[in-house]
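To: structure desk
From: M.T.
Subject: fold request, one chain
Message: Could you run this one when you get a chance? Sequence is below, nothing fancy, just the single chain.
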Amino acid sequence: MRTKPDLNWLTDVNTFAVNRLPAHSSHVYYETMDEAEQLLPMTMRKSLNGNWKFHYAINPSARPESFYHVDFDCDSWNDIKVPGHIQLQGYGKPQYVNTMYPWDGMNDIRPPEIPMDKNAVGSYVKNFHVPDNMKEKPVFISFQGVESAFYVWLNGHFIGYSEDSFTPAEFELTPFLQEGENKLAVEVYQRSTGSWLEDQDFWRFSGIFREVYLYTVPKMHVYDAYVHAELDETYTKGTLKVDLQLSSLAATGSKIFAELVDKEGEIVGSTSVDLNEEKQTFTLNVNTPKLWSAENPYLYKLYMQLIDETGEIVEVVPQKIGFRRFELVDKVMKINGERIVFKGVNRHEFHHRTGRAITKEDMLWDIKTLKQNNINAVRTSHYPNQSYWYELCDEYGVYVIDEMNLETHGSWQKMGAVDPSWNIPGNKPEWQDIVLDRAKSMFERDKNHPSILIWSCGNESYAGEVILNVTKYFKSVDSSRLVHYEGVFYDRTYNDTSDMESRMYAKPADIEEYLTNNPEKPYISCEYMHAMGNSLGGMNYYTELEDKYPMYQGGFIWDYMDQSLVQKGRYGNEFLAYGGDFGDRPTDYGFCTNGIVYADRKLSPKMQEVKYLYQNIKLEADETGVTIKNKNLFKDTSDYLLTYTLFHEGEKLCEKIAEVNVSPQSEQRLIFDWSRDLLNKTGEYYVQVAFLLKEKTVWAEAGHEVAFGQYVFEKTSEDTLTTRSDEKIRLVEGDVNIGVHGRDFSIIFSKQVGSLVSITYSGKEMIAFPPAPLFWRATTDNDRGYAQAFVSGCWLSASVARRCTEVELSTNENTVVVAFTYKFSIHPDIEVNTIYTVNPNGSIHVRSSYKGAEGLPQMPIFSLSFKVPASYNQLEWYAMGPEENYSDRAQGARLGVFKNTVKDNMAAYLNPQESGNRTGVRRVRVTNEGGEGLMIAAKDTPIECNVSPYTALELENAQHHYELPNVHYTVITVAGKQMGVGGDDSWGAPVHEEHVIKANRDMEFEFVIQREGI
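Reply: Done. Structure tokens follow.
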């Protein structure tokens, strides 16, 4: 045991754990069966969470070096909360960087050097008394997560040192405890050798950010348990083998009694084994065990009783058991004999106020959100999570890629260019032990969780012998799981590092190329669909591969949650901040906002698409019935009610409920049970079909929708009735204005302005700013990555600079037609013709046509945009919804009638950008709270529409929502077409071709403006 700490350990690649106890399984243990059965809080643990005395120093030379001495007075120090990050409690500042190291451009160093001038030191002190039930017993301390390196003292005595921010570090305190008060001192360094291995895409913090507790053990104690719940090749015979390591040799005559209990509390097997050695193994056979999968996460409970030589129970260890078999068969990954498809997401542990110091309540919300939205897998990007997360994945049913704490992105990739000239760990043997230690710590802690199917050797650390040896380690200790590593893509010399072909942000065409050229391994996208801001367009191109290629086995969206933190603005208002908002430099700014969930745990509109494309049950409806395709591997549909509803023009006509039990991996046809007389009207019908939970589950309430389908069809008639109006309109052609007047309405066109300038219904002016052609949308994060402003910036110019070259007036059967022709400086041949036809009832038919030309870049949007007063802020849509949708992100949208407000129609993407669009718009009512206003209705073909508090240019000029002006208007944008939002990546990937607007094509759209409630 080392007794003297050394500051040089911070830069010594060979010193990463001093006096630290060996890693072990994360099981709980009790003194009685009653406690174990109830899983009560452990009496043999004492939490040290809460307030600690704290001192902050900007670097080691400024730290109070002797603070750990018993006579050093810390009473005047401030308090800090544990668990928690130092930088989120008033000290230093958080820093967000993606691939570069946080000291890039600040310190000229190479591994394993660290910047000592800016290496924040947190000095923590906690005084405690040893609980009565721990006295005269061995006492240990467990730090579940400390970033990035720390030294520990007790009562002035050096206890130990550890690196690896995301796995437990435990030390024995027994020899140094004293009667009465004990002084625990912890010195935490932000930078260490380990920091070179922790270059993940996340906020850089430091401190004790996971729980800390004291614990004791009884005289006989299971130090480590390794549970092997194995199945034979028929999946009908289970073997439970348990390898135990005791903390010490048991007395002669001691034994272990093990009992396996099912969910109903019935004993399915038991055994008794004498404890003759510190390491002991026992086996139980289980015939026809119920199997664990994400669809049916069946867990048994194993109770292991340690009984001493007198027959007294000394310790009871409860352990949940899941029987499942995960394997590679004929180049396909299979769970319990069936091909698995990962419908996954990458997940950082995060909270918008506490960073990575998240609570059990946060994790419960997350696991329920995954299940409610058909997400069946999670990758712990890019570090082991809190142990409780794996318990939830076991219980709720989520497949896990458990990823070790390793990323060295900044050592080999610079601004996208691959340059491994000083890559670590590479083939550098001096880095082997420190890297392998991280793998061992993760494996030993997490090995008993059935939800973990795959071990991952870390993320974006290039390739080499060191990481290959990690794979060899995993395979040497665990034959029940596969091993993943994406980095071999860059160096195929080390292809054996990964059991699967794993890539990041490969385009669908690239994936197909791999799968059609004699692939050697199954394929997954460990990261795909970069969900930054308004994104996730084209996700269906990936999910469509699931049925096409057996060796395509899904992927993991990047990522689950925005990493944004609460910050206070200049005027004291809180806002969600991204990189740079804390004065942190260097930084990668808003690149941390990639979630399908916002950082405050609210769903983003993107989740609508995820839920639909990830659903395991496909409902393919038509006019007469629905074909139910149950793509679950093991679960039938008996837990669900099928509802099917008929609508006409947005009005519900009939709703039915049925119970249909479709076996897994099969399909069935259901004929709709309603009268054909319901279909005797002309117009648009649609059928919505859904499976709803019959009963409440641990993850959702009864009635929760698990699958959805829709079919839209038309009923036409040859007899078309034309209605003639007796209303008369009066035309006044002035020198400047053209006025069209009728009963209770007045409409004015300005030849000078070149547009419609006034709509007055019953004396209420509706137009606050005239309609004008708009070709630009507020730049999305993906647009920015593609350099849309550079590529297509001429369309921004065209949106603000146009010339009305002609105004034409004509009349036709009691209607007045006013046409405006616009020319644009960006090209002499393009023109827009906007024709307004005023009807006797005051409605206005609008037709906007575009004449294209060669030599122009893609067009973001072809639309007309105008403003009405801000009091018209209530929206009712008959469109695709309910959440925003775009041409390449509309699979999960459904046709229906939805209500929201103009304010709520704008998504909360951190960087203001285009949001709130609806495709398939039949009509949208824009009214005040009294129901008065306008209705925008499609003429024959559905349109796209957006209603926002801000113009595209106002959004374009703001980097945060607080920079936007006070709301003065409601901005209505009616589009014939808007380009898709894309999402293959956010640093250059184009929107897929079929969702791009070609500027050389002629285009036209029509809609009607009419009064609503006036």
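Reply (cont.): The longest helix spans residues 432-446. Let me know if you need anything else for the meeting.
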